[in-house]
Write a structure and sequence with these properties.
Elements lengths: L2 E5 L4 E5 L5 E6 L5 E5 L6 E7 L5 E7 L7 E6 L5 E7 L5 E8 L5 E6 L5 E5 L5 E6 L14 E12 L2 E10 L9 E9 L7 E8 L5 E9 L4 E7 L6 E7 L2 E6 L5 E6 L5 E6 L4 E5 L5 E5 L5 E6 L6 E5 L5 E6 L5 E6 L5 E5 L6 E4 L9 E3 L4
Antiparallel strand pairs: 1-2, 2-3, 3-4, 4-5, 5-6, 6-7, 7-8, 8-9, 9-10, 10-11, 11-12, 12-13, 13-14, 14-15, 15-16, 16-17, 17-18, 18-19, 19-20, 20-21, 21-22, 22-23, 23-24, 24-25, 25-26, 26-27, 27-28, 28-29, 29-30, 30-31
Length: about 375
């Protein structure tokens, strides 16, 4: 059970999750978020302001109010975010800025120490070109080292039917204006039948076609997605009844069948290739996977949080799992493998993996982008 508690006078809302960890949101009198704290989240603190030109900014500190990890975004008078600032290496500030034309179209993005990204549009307002201005001359020049992508959209008449066609091109050769078509995408606009409701054709750089269709049988309440891939003889198929996926066939010919209970919850999944049968409990969690020999790999969960707490292999080997309030795994133990402890650095959210018999110099460190 997840509980929600509100204090309208103090403008504080609290979420209490099944594991009793909390998320507390505090707001200013105008409704803007002041802070988000609690055991279930990484704390964030918000600051706001207005510049002399009328633009507004929001600065978010992560971890604590005076944290060195922050990000400041500035929006213009129409609400577009055009400036983002955050700490960079060696005490520098990394700046990302967007520029718009009089039509409100994004025409340039600049980022510290990177080439500018430029955008151009056709008369219909559709994006025509985008790319990196490598030679820094302010334009996308095909006869240069600029990395340019081009997109053209048009309506074409093929076999008595109209299609919406988009052609993607690049300037692949250095100092050359020759274009290379990387993809052509067509979407059917006319010529539908009682069952055919959508059709798309994708043509690769090698000229290989991938055909995707959607068929709906209203009387039988079925929806069938079919894909003809150029690298396979089998048609890739997925079929749903009343919105529930009932079967799939991969392009390699592997069939998977699904079953549901009266409430529409998945209770069974069978892979014909390897003979595995996947069974779900009443909460929609996988409780075991059975192979064609009848051996089962089973799973146990915390009834409140739904986190996996135990995994038992086909040979009866058991692995237990424990988590912190952020739902990050902290311990893993049992007779299936060596016990492992995970320690997280609240400063950079890095992860250290320790085995009880390992010394510190043999730690495995995994760092994640926050």
């Amino acid at each position: 059970v997840t509980q929600y508690v509100y204090n309208e006078k103090e403008r504080i809302s609290k979420v209490i999750y099944p594991n009793k960890a909390t998320k507390i949101t505090s707001r200013h009198i105008d409704g803007k978020v002041k802070s988000i704290t609690g055991a279930s989240v990484i704390a964030k603190y918000y600051d706001y302001g207005i510049n002399p030109d009328g633009s507004t900014w929001t600065k978010v500190y992560t971890g604590k109010t005076d944290s060195l990890q922050w990000e400041k975004t500035t929006s213009d008078t129409v609400g577009r975010e055009y400036l983002t600032e955050k700490p960079g290496p060696k005490s520098t500030i990394e700046i990302r800025q967007h520029y718009y034309n009089q039509r409100g179209q994004l025409i340039k993005t600049t980022t510290t120490d990177l080439a500018d990204t430029l955008y151009t549009y056709n008369m219909m307002g559709e994006r025509l070109r985008s790319g990196l201005d490598i030679n820094d001359n302010g334009i996308l020049d095909p006869e240069s080292d600029d990395r340019i992508n081009e997109s053209n959209t048009q309506y074409v008449h093929i076999d008595e039917n109209w299609w919406d066609e988009t052609i993607q091109k690049v300037y692949a050769k250095k100092d050359g204006a020759a274009q290379t078509t990387t993809q052509t995408q067509r979407t059917r606009m006319t010529g539908f039948s009682d069952t055919l409701t959508a059709e798309n054709i994708s043509i690769s750089i090698k000229g290989e076609e991938t055909l995707s269709t959607v068929l709906i049988n209203r009387s039988k309440k079925t929806e069938t997605h079919m894909t003809n891939n150029p690298d396979a003889e089998n048609v890739q198929i997925s079929q749903s009844i009343n919105g529930l996926l009932m079967s799939t066939t991969s392009k390699s010919g592997v069939n998977v069948i699904y079953q549901y209970d009266a409430l529409g919850r998945k209770i069974y999944e069978s892979d014909e290739r390897v003979g595995n049968k996947m069974h779900y409990n009443s909460k929609g969690w996988i409780d075991y996977v059975e192979n064609k020999e009848g051996h089962r790999k089973s799973y146990d969960y915390d009834p409140e949080t739904g986190k996996k707490t135990k995994e038992t292999s086909e040979l009866g080997k058991v692995t237990h799992f424990a988590y912190n309030d952020l739902n990050q795994i902290t311990h893993q133990w049992g007779n299936a493998d060596y016990p492992v402890q995970y320690v997280y650095d609240p400063k950079d959210y890095g992860q250290s993996k320790n085995s009880p018999k390992q010394k510190i110099r043999k730690q495995t460190h995994c760092h994640y982008d926050p």
